[in-house]
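Exercise 3.2. Students should predict the tertiary structure of the chain below and write it as structure tokens, then compare their answer with the key that follows.

Predict this chain's 3D structure.
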Amino acid sequence: MPYRPNTYLSRKSALLLFVPIIGLSLHGVALSDDFCSEPVAPYCVDKDSDFQSKVEVDRCEKDLSDYDKELSEYEKCVKSQIEDLRKGLSAAKKRLEDAKQRL
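Answer key:
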């Protein structure tokens, strides 16, 4: 049997440690629909100085357009979450009323 240095075992152990991490990462992707991520405003929103070049103007214009789209998606996501929370609230109120009637 050939000699295998300790690094062989370390690599194998490391691989076994990464498998659950990869699984958890993929699970997080599946849960991403449950989480609304607030978009980050582009740098030019808070920029104090004037634009010094056409490149800066063009870049800011594109960034603002992308930011506008991201804000719309974020708004839809938050509204959807609020609707889900309100449905849960309504269901809880109904269960409470049903319990009051039984008692």
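Discussion points: The radius of gyration is 26 Å. Residues 14-32 have pLDDT under 50 and may be disordered.
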